[in-house]
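Quick one - first record:
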Amino acid sequence: MSFSSKVKEELSRQASTARHCQIAELAAILSFCGRVQISEHDHYRIKIHTENAAVARKGFTLLKKTFKIGTDVSVRRNAFLKKTLTYTVAVQNHQDAMKVLRATKILQENGEIGETLSLADNVILQRSCCRRSFIRGAFLAAGSISDPEKFYHLEIVCPTAEKASQIQTVIGTFGIDAKMVIRKKYFVVYVKEGSQIVDLLNVMEAPVSLMELENIRILREMRGQVNRQVNCETANINKTVSAAVRQMEDIFYIRDTIGLHRLPENLEEIARLRLARPDASLKELGEALDSPVGKSGVNHRLRKLSAIAEELREKDAGSGIGGSLSQGK
């Protein structure tokens, strides 16, 4: 089971005790995956279509628990995608359908079917608890969340810009910065920040999924920190090794060209010590000298040796090095 399916399964079993919250969640489900049918005799029917069994179960539960009405449930196999099942929860009775439509404010006072998408004017979204339920219903009906082991992404796909703007605004009331993008003919409201997805799972009341995501986030952050530290240490080791190799090459060149005994005493001492201890750090070299010096002092002497070696490479052996030799002290 995918992480998204686990979240929906948990949310489908999250039951609000307050009737107004149940109505808000059902309103979201009807808004995103419901249909209202009107017969030629002005009889209303409601249908919830979904490919997710958890969503169908939640719609069925809300209709039965909130309105005490009977529903017809059917399951069909998709004609094009043989492995996909489509679930339909239908309210066939006209009076029952009218009761649901009026409570969810989908049936307007003038008898027209429509939705009040303004947060300020929508009476079913005035309470914070109802907005939580509405977001939960919207995610159940049209949302998905990626595998957090790979990347962080939660989205709700909306058929219209008005619905996308509404759910974006409702999410924003909880301090979560949801974005909106157009994808083909749909409007997608999404959250990509891991911490904000955690906050949104908390808003929707999915504690088990929230803890699983938090554990994954902690492990990913720890792995990232370890990798960064290892990369940093590896880079430092490579840098130290490369510097030591260059220093050894310079000292070998000086030794084979004019001999280390021609060097000033302090440079000869550090040169012979480097040859004896090729893997030592600058600090270790400084501490091993007869008169210990710091890292900067060791580095200064090694740079002098590098300058002498470079001068020797440019000139014939033994010519023009007096100036550099005299500067070694």
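second record:
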Amino acid sequence: MKYDIKKLYEATSLDHAISLLEQHPEAKIIAGGSDILISVRGGELAGCTLVSIYGLDDLRGVSLEDDGTIRIGSLTSFTNIVRNEIINKYVPFLGEAAGSVGGPQVRNIGTIGGNTCNGVTSADTASTLLALDAIIEVKGKDGYRRIPIKDWYIKAKVVDLKPTEVQTAILLPKESYENYFGYYFKYSMRHAMDIATCGCSVNVKLSEDKKNITDVRIAYGVAGPVPLRALTAEAAIKERPVDLETIELFSEKVKDDINPRTSWRATKEFRTHLMTELARRCLIESVRRSGGTFQ
């Protein structure tokens, strides 16, 4: 299979990658290539210049920092996220989201950095990272920047990454995951190798007696042009009791925040129905995982 690529540069370090991007402002970054090579093959990026960062092992792996922050290197593959002990201990629902990406071959080569840098609303890890209040770390010639993920997505396929910057890590502060339990559900027409018709991630923190919802976060993929949080729904059930009325209020209130579109995959009406139902199911499962039960 041939790809129409004008030039390919291999970065040997992070600073070298930044230097190459400065020298070739038209260049695109390639990591695993599971997204960008499709665009090259399809003609959207035909004749492009690429800067490969795939060999930068310093950008791989998951670690727990002294302050409890979970640091996920941007070149960490989905497979490694699924298998990682830190992820499975503290944020297993992120591992579940990573495990829903494509098939085994895609998960082996695809990276969480690529999944968040492509800016598409259907990215499987995006909604879970939003529900975790993740922070995106990037580096350019002027040093590092850290961007809350809620500010990362600007519009469809556009993120807050300058042409001469490289995403280096995704950070999960301790306060964003400690005592929270979550669940991610991907609805797609096939169980593998398919883009999400809708993705929903709910993250819940219960009171000590497990009878009230202290905090909740819900985020969607394909509910709008970028991954988004349903803030109205979140506010509606904070400090409410864990009961059936809370479930129904939650699922109804998400309609105030979502704006799905009609495409060949599904109509707007069907997606809206899906999203209300997934809010209900994901909240129930997150509460169950928290040790609570609905009355």
